[in-house]
Amino acid sequence: MNIAVFPNLLKKDAAFYAERVVEVLSSLMAETVLPIETKKFFPQLSALFKPEEQMLPKCDIAIAIGGDGTIIRCAKEAARFGKPVLGINVGRLGFVAGLETDELDHLPDLISGNYTIEERMMLEVTLSGPQKEETYFALNDAVVARGTLSRILDLQVLLNDTILCGYRADGLILSTPTGSTAYSLSAGGPVIDPGMRCILLSPICPHSLLTRPVVFGEDSCLRVQILSDSASQESYLTVDGSVSIPLSPNVSSVTFRKAETPARLIKIKNLNFYEVVNSKLAERRL
After folding, report:
1. Sequence-distant (≥ 6) Cβ neighbours of residue 48 within 8 angstroms
2. Any catalytic annotation for residue 68?
3. pLDDT tens track for 105-133
């Protein structure tokens, strides 16, 4: 079995746990591959080192060692090749992680096939302007929001090309069920089982007493337009909290729909989603 290991070495202890993971997998006769730029951090490690672009196409499984951001980035890239990802949490919450660092004794189950694969819906996010279109993919969420110093935005939402409603707000969060426990939760959105297929729209600080989050079906196509009065204001499209694109006045709309390809996350422990949510939110309260 060929396993690609992607550690986020900016995270404390990620290098230590990457070594432990490789040692355990090597003892189980698995071939492990790490990004070539990490080789200097592991001079004694018995593993292969290759360019990242060569790792996912040829591996059977990918392991991401880091926080939610690391695991999400790896899962989105692995989805292009249909590869499943096991996340090992060395971050703070780790909602999408399959294992914690004190649970590496479960790694033999990875080799024996004693695990399940959860398919998680992603969003295809298309930024449209008069000259070109740009497409991004979100496993958690995509956010259209004002800049730090700009005024409240006037936004219009269309559902399948029909005007649905308008918002005066700091912005809008469009999230997947996986992302319902991320930014959307902080904005008052509901927790949604990640096995569902839907799109959740949550306004950020809406200037209305009646505005609430709305859940749309998986076949919905939602388009967000910044109205002319707000078009000159500083605003951004942020995808999964890592990619931020300034929205210039000539951007016509941002479209959100279910992506054709899901992310595939490996689940080893016999815990249901709500047990995970309760334990993670309990940690947040501490």
Report:
1. 31, 32, 33, 34
2. yes
3. 999 999 999 999 999 999 999 998 777 78
